[in-house]
Design a protein that fits this description.
124 residues, mainly alpha
Length: 124
């Protein structure tokens, strides 16, 4: 079971690190998700840094539990963005269908982060 938990942590880490780097390579992809009241560039850069940092944290056994809690919180913070996207005439994700699919995926990501958090020994 520990092997599965480690694999799940590493896969999530890869997703976060790739997404975080993508904030710098293709910032226009994320711009439409950022609410108008937030500073676009600063929010995008900050989010990219946080995603890469949390991804690296998931790779390190010593920090995995804390990083998983950080990912859990981040995924909850992203939830309203994806919820709003479902109701937009022109969803940021590209289509209504993708927005509808993305919403339950966000809940899966929230659970995944929680699972990693709960699976890690508190003394790690």
């Amino acid at each position: 079971m520990k092997r599965l938990q480690t694999i799940l942590a590493f896969v999530f880490a890869a997703i976060l690190i790739i997404a975080g780097i993508n904030h710098f390579i293709k910032p226009n992809v994320y711009g439409p998700f950022i609410p108008d009241w937030m500073p676009l560039v600063l929010t995008n850069v900050f989010t990219g840094i946080v995603e890469v940092g949390l991804g690296i944290g998931l790779l390190a056994q010593k920090f995995r539990r804390q990083a998983a809690m950080g990912v859990f919180i981040l995924m909850i913070l992203f939830l309203p963005l994806h919820l709003v996207d479902v109701f937009k005439d022109h969803p940021a994700i590209g289509s209504k269908t993708l927005a509808i699919i993305r919403l339950p995926l966000q809940f899966l990501l929230i659970y995944w982060a929680w699972y990693i958090f709960r699976s890690e020994n508190r003394k790690s």
